[in-house]
Specification:
Belongs to the UPF0410 family. This is GlsB/YeaQ/YmgE family stress response membrane protein. Helix content is about 80%, strand content about 0%. The N and C termini lie far apart (about 35 Å). The protein is globular and about 35 Å long. With about 100 residues, the protein is mostly helical. About 35% of the residues are buried. The protein contains four helices and no strands. The chain has one domain (about 5-100).
């Protein structure tokens, strides 16, 4: 197994927010969080619906991983999952903007 696959597996295990809202909820929340994060970071003109969902879902995993050190992210519910996805999406877009410059 490659190191990337192991890292993704560890990230998925650490970010257990999917257990409280399900896959469909994750896609809906990820889309909204990705769209709001792209508005906040000024990248909305470059992103479409699909990329907003992708950024939101990856951001939710990232935010869930980071917040899991301080909170129980698995039992947070819809609102906590949205805030987690929004935080992770903003962090992800910040990193991407810095790497592109």
């Amino acid at each position: 197994m490659s190191t990337t696959a192991v890292a993704v597996e560890i990230l998925a295990e650490r970010s257990t927010t999917t257990t409280s809202v399900g896959i469909i909820g994750y896609i809906i929340i990820g889309g909204l969080a990705g769209w709001i994060a792209s508005k906040f970071m000024g990248t909305d003109a470059q992103m479409g619906i699909v990329l907003n969902v992708v950024v939101g879902v990856i951001g939710a995993f990232l935010g869930g991983f980071l917040l899991s050190f301080a909170f129980d992210t698995a039992s947070g519910g819809w609102f906590f999952t949205f805030l987690t996805a929004l935080l992770g999406s903003v962090i992800l877009l910040f990193i991407v903007k810095r790497l592109r410059k």
